Amino acid sequence: MKNNDEILALFENYLAQIKLPEEPQILYSPIIYSMSGGGKRIRPTLLLLACEAYGGNVQDALPAAAAVEMFHNFTLLHDDIMDNAEVRRGKPSVYAKWGENVAILSGDAMMIYSYHLLQRVPESKLSRIMEIFTPMALQVCEGQQYDMDFENCAKVSVVEYMRMIELKTSVLLAGSAMIGAVLGDASVEECRKIYRYALELGLAFQLQDDLLDSYGTEEELGKKIGGDILEGKKTYLMLQAMSRATEEDRNILRNTYRDNSLTDDEKIARVKAVYDRYDIYHSVEQQISLRFDRALSLLGTLDLPAERTEHLRVFAQNLMGRKK
C-alpha cells in the first residue's frame, strides 16, 4: 500500500496533466492559479487512501479525487467574494487579483468541470458516486448560506453552529472518503462507517481552524490572524464566550469589531482578553480532542485489518498536527 506522501505525489502528478482550454484566457487562468495555489489536498488524499484501504485501484480513483479538489477550490473562489477576502493561502485571492466578475465565472466553470472529471471514473461506479457527490455539493452550499445567515442573527446556538460547519466543511471531507470507499468496492455499511469517521475528523479540523484564527500564526493559517474577530463572526469561540460571559463582557464581544476608535490589533486583543478570562482556548481544545478521538474510534470499527487502516490513522494525525 502507498503511504500518504506517495498518494499525494500520485495525485499532484495527475493534476498537473489535466489540460484546461487555453481560451478564453481570463476564464481559465484563474482556475490554474487557484488549483496550483499550494492547497493541502486533504480531500483527494483521503479519497485515494480510502479507495486503497479497501483494495481499490487508485488509478481509477484519480479523476474523482481531482473532482473533489476542483469543487473545493470552486467554493473557495466564491467564499472569498462573499467574505471580501483579499488573501488565500498566503497570496492574492482570485477575487483580489482578477475582480468579482471573473471570480464568479471561473468558480462556476470549476464547479461544472468537477462533474466533467467525475465522468472519467469506471462506468460501473459512476451512478453511485453521483448519488454521493451531488447531495454533498448541495449541502456545502447550504452550509455557506447558514454561515451568512448567522451574521444577521442576534443569537446562534452551539448546536446550530456545529450543524453549519458540518455542512460547510465536514460533508465534503466525509463525501470524499465515501467516494473512495465506493471505488474500493466497500459495502454500504463500510461506506457509512468511513463517512462518519471523516465527518468527525472534519468537525475537529474546522474547530481547530477557528482556534488558529485567534490563537495561531499567519504561517499556520495562511492568512492574517484575527479575521473572524474583525468580522464579528459567530465562531465556536465566540459562542462559548457568549454563553459564559457577564453582560459587560458580552457587550465587548458584540460590539468591539464595530468600534472605529480601535485599531485592528486593539480589537483582536480586546476580544481575546475576554476569551482568556473564560478559558475559551482550553474549552475549544477539549471539543477538538473529543471529535478527533471519536474519529479514531470510528476508524477502529471498520471491517479491515489494522495495517489497512494505518494510513487513514496517520492522515488524521497529520491533519490535526498530532503525534499520536
Which features would summarize this protein structure in a list?
2 strands; globular; 16 helices; two-stranded antiparallel ribbon; mainly alpha; 324 residues
Short description:
With 324 residues, the protein is an all-alpha fold. It is built from 16 helices and 2 strands.
Overview of the molecule:
With 324 residues, the protein is mainly alpha-helical. It is built from 16 helices and 2 strands. 40% of the residues are buried. The model has no long low-confidence stretch (mean pLDDT 94).
Shape category: globular
Percent range of helical residues: over 70%
Strand order of the largest sheet: 1-2
End-to-end separation in angstroms reads 21 Å
> Which structural class do the helices and strands define?
mainly alpha
What is the beta-strand fraction?
A: under 5%
Ranges where pLDDT stays below 50 over 5 or more residues in a row are none
Q: Tally the beta strands.
A: 2
| Average pLDDT number | 94
Order of helices and strands: HHHHEEHHHHHHHHHHHH
Describe the sheet with the most strands: 2 strands, antiparallel
Q: What is the overall number of helices?
A: 16
Q: Gyration radius, to the nearest Å?
A: 20 Å
Q: SSE layout and pairings?
A:
Elements: H1 4-17, H2 25-35, H3 42-53, H4 58-83, E1 87-88, E2 91-92, H5 94-98, H6 100-118, H7 123-150, H8 158-183, H9 188-215, H10 218-221, H11 227-231, H12 236-244, H13 247-255, H14 264-277, H15 280-299, H16 306-319
Helix pairs in contact: 1-3, 2-6, 3-4, 3-8, 3-16, 4-6, 4-7, 4-8, 7-8, 8-9, 9-15, 12-15, 15-16
